[in-house]
DNA sequence: CGGCTGATGGACT
DNA sequence: GTCCATCAGCCGA
């Protein structure tokens, strides 16, 4: 449905040298990049979240890019509020929000301090800590559904309001201390990706309908909720 | 598999 | 009062 296939050339594997300590050193690579560029680069990256019960790691398979005052689909469209404050902060933090009265969703903030932009983490494949993820997602019928959706992903990783504003570390995801969040782009090879309109974003024909949702083509963990 | 709907509470107009 | 960057269960094909 209006989905634009993206060439394999655009899906070249992320080279860690392009993002030295990306989420550790403000002002380096990620600052100069749009949330759309960061979103594409995050496909295939590994994200780990530690907790007292252990660590769960996912391979990111689906994301959406959001901007600020220029983006009608963004929480930051009408300016800074208590809820979206983290979006206006520096890159490398988690922006976590509560929606529909029951779900948490997580983003990675991508812009410089003062500029609102973020990438919504929409789906992933659990690659470590599967047992813990299953215990958190008891309604999941198969492992592919453990993190196939933004709220499912947050639940599987144990992300909730306590993580809003948490800095994302660039360290390896194994044996994480409690409540530490880690993003690992190094050595990650992602395959071809596709793009299409963002989910749940009503469009007026403007920027809101731009194809700023990205996913790894054909990946079974990509969320099934795609209609707007 | 695809479509439909109730749940449920906080943020914002 | 209205709107959600959603999900699970149920239904029919």
UniProtKB/TrEMBL annotation:
UniProt keyword annotations, A-Z: DNA damage, DNA repair, Hydrolase
Record Gene3D superfamilies: Methylpurine-DNA glycosylase (MPG) (3.10.300.10)
Q: Which InterPro entries does the entry mention?
A: Formyl_transferase-like_C_sf, MPG, MPG_sf
Which branch of life, at top level?
Answer: Bacteria
Q: Might you give the EC number(s) for this enzyme?
A: 3.2.2.-
Q: Which NCBIfam families match?
A: 3mg, PRK00802.1-3
HAMAP family from the entry?
3MGH (MF_00527)
| Name of this protein | Putative 3-methyladenine DNA glycosylase
What is the organism of origin for this protein?
Answer: Serinibacter arcticus
């Amino acid at each position: 449905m209006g989905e634009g296939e993206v060439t394999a050339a655009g899906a070249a594997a992320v080279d860690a040298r392009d993002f030295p300590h990306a989420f550790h050193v403000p002002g380096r690579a990620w600052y100069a990049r749009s949330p759309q560029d960061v979103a594409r680069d995050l496909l295939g990256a590994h994200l780990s979240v530690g907790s007292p019960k252990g660590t769960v790691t996912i391979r990111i398979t689906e994301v959406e890019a959001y901007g600020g005052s220029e983006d009608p689909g963004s929480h930051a469209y009408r300016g800074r509020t208590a809820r979206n404050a983290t979006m206006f902060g520096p890159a490398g933090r988690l922006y976590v929000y509560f929606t529909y009265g029951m779900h948490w969703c997580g983003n990675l903030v991508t812009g410089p301090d003062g500029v609102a932009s973020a990438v919504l983490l929409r789906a992933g494949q659990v690659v470590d800590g599967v047992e813990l993820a299953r215990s958190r997602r008891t309604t999941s019928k198969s492992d592919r559904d453990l993190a196939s959706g933004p709220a499912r992903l947050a639940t599987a990783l144990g992300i909730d309001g306590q993580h809003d504003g948490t800095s994302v570390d660039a360290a390896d995801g194994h044996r994480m201390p409690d409540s530490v969040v880690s993003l690992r782009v190094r050595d990650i090879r992602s395959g071809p990706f596709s793009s299409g309109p963002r989910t749940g974003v009503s469009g007026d024909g403007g920027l809101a309908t731009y194809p700023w949702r990205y996913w790894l083509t054909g990946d079974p963990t990509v969320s099934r909720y795609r209609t707007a």
